[in-house]
Amino acid sequence: MDIRVRALETLLIDKGFVDPAALDVLIDTYEHRVGPHNGAQVIARAWADPDYRAWLLEDATAAIGSEEGFGYRGRQGEHMVALENTPKLHNMVVCTLCSCYPWPVLGLPPVWYKSAPYRSRVVMDPRGVLGDFGVTLPEQTEIRVWDSTAEMRYLVLPMRPDGTEGWSQEQLARLVTRDSMIGTGFALDPAQLADAGGDA
User: Fold this and answer.
1) In terms of domains, do 62 and 142 share one?
2) Which structural domain, as residue segments, surrounds residue 174?
3) Do 168 and 47 meet the contact criterion of CB atoms below 8 Å apart?
4) Which of 105-114, 117-126, 152-161 has the lowest mean pLDDT?
5) Are residues 156 and 69 in the same domain?
6) Quick one: pLDDT at residue 199?
7) pLDDT-derived band at 77, boundaries 50, 70, 90
């Protein structure tokens, strides 16, 4: 696949359809300036600021994309909905038709998100898919699977880990993982952050 992509890129550049400098800017934007760290900032603010959390859950598009929010907007992020995980409800996101994904807050989608097995299994067996990711939920926890479309993208608001009272938004953001914002994982707990070399 990598060879095919490089061959196609070379052909498009040689034919003059793609400007290599513009392509480099696009790749750099989504690899370094747009990505899960943007979403982590959104989640951390929602954990720390009850007013922002309420706004995010009521109108995620504005809370994420407006200047009063974060200004994270653009392609694949025009219409956003935030889904809050609780002890009684766990949300997961998929795109069963293709790979619709909220680029402005999560960057480029992981390979598994675009794979046919994930896209089909998560709808039929969400608990089994969570198990594949190492996530076990109590039987009484309801699981809802949300199907992204060209018109709507979803961002999961994971539960805030215990033991983070008084933490700054910067500290909280380090606990947020990409998978926790898709619903296939949890946010890190403080011990995991310490084990990974972060300063809790």
Assistant:
1) yes
2) 37-195
3) no
4) 105-114
5) yes
6) 52
7) low
Q: Any idea which of 6-20, 57-71, 175-189 has the lowest mean pLDDT?
A: 6-20
The answer to whether residues 19 and 45 belong to one domain is: no
Same structural domain for residues 138 and 185? yes
Question: Are 164 and 185 within one domain?
Answer: yes
Give the three-state DSSP class for 44.
Answer: helix
> Identity (one letter) of the amino acid at 200?
A
For residues 46 and 99, membership in a common domain is answered with yes
Which pLDDT value is given to residue 29?
A: 66
* Full-model pTM: 0.82
Answer yes or no: are the C-beta atoms of 179 and 185 closer than 8 Å: yes
Q: How far, in Å, CA of 37 to CA of 97, rounded?
A: 26
Question: At a CB cut-off of 8 Å and minimum separation 6, what does 172 contact?
Answer: 43, 44, 47, 48, 160, 164
Rounded to whole angstroms, the maximal C-alpha distance in the chain is 58
How many domains does the chain contain in total? 2
Do 90 and 19 belong to one domain? no
- Residues known to be catalytic: 95, 98-100
The C-alpha atoms of residue 118 and residue 181 are separated, in whole angstroms, by 16
**How far is residue 69's CA from residue 21's CA, in Å, rounded to a whole number?**
31
